[in-house]
Amino acid sequence: MQRPERINDKQFVIGMENKIVIITGANSGIGKAAALRFASEGYRVIMACRNMEISKVVQIQITELSNNYNVDLMELDVSSFDSIRKFCSEFKAKYPHLDILIHNAAYLNYGEKEYKLSAEHIELSFATNTFGPFLLNNLLADHLEKSQDPRILNACTTNIKNFFDPGRQIEFDNLRGEFRNTRRYNVYKMYGDSKMALLILTFKMAEEFKSREIKVNALQINRVKLSKETIKKLSSFWKVLAWAQNFTNPLPSGMADNYFHICTSNEFSNVTGQLINHKREIVQPSTKEKGIAQLKNIFGSSNYPKYASDSQNAEKIWNLSTELTNE
Ligand SMILES: NC(=O)c1ccc[n+]([C@@H]2O[C@H](COP(=O)([O-])OP(=O)(O)OC[C@H]3O[C@@H](n4cnc5c(N)ncnc54)[C@H](OP(=O)(O)O)[C@@H]3O)[C@@H](O)[C@H]2O)c1
Question: What is the pLDDT of residue 15?
Answer without folding.
Answer: 57
